[in-house]
Amino acid sequence: MTSVDDGVDLEQVAALLRQRHEQTVEQIRVQTAESHNLRQAARHEPGDVADAGSLISDTAQHDIVTATLTEQAERLSAALDRLRDGSFGLCGTCGQQIPLARMEIMPWATHCIPCQQRAERGR
Ligand SMILES: [Zn+2]
């Protein structure tokens, strides 16, 4: 059923995907807790202006990381959904099987490379 190319099979990619999703969710949890702590610190210990400034930029940095992680988690969770409904690894444009080697690197990929490149050029 699944062609074994490059020694990667769908099971492995699926396992990798679940693992990445778990890790990302865990990182979000840590980031959220940390930025919560930073905000608490900023509120309770105003300190001098320089400190307050660095606290604010730390918090901003955390927010950017959290936003990126959240986006990543959403993509991974969408990929897990596709895994369940059987459309995982199929190109959303041409319906062809996306090479598993690509799915291993980018498990959230929804398009094969040619379709992706066409879409990017068309932008
Ligand atoms: Zn395609």
UniProtKB/TrEMBL annotation:
Domain called Zinc finger DksA/TraR C4-type: residue spans: 86-121
The entry's keywords: Metal-binding, Zinc, Zinc-finger
Presence of the UniProt keyword Zinc-finger in the record: yes
Gene Ontology MF term list: zinc ion binding
dksA C4-type zinc finger span: 91-115
Entry annotated with the keyword Lipoprotein: no
Gene3D superfamilies associated with the record: DksA, coiled-coil domain (1.20.120.910)
One family name in Pfam for this protein: zf-dskA_traR
InterPro entries: Znf_DskA_TraR (IPR000962)
Protein name per Swiss-Prot or TrEMBL: Molecular chaperone DnaK
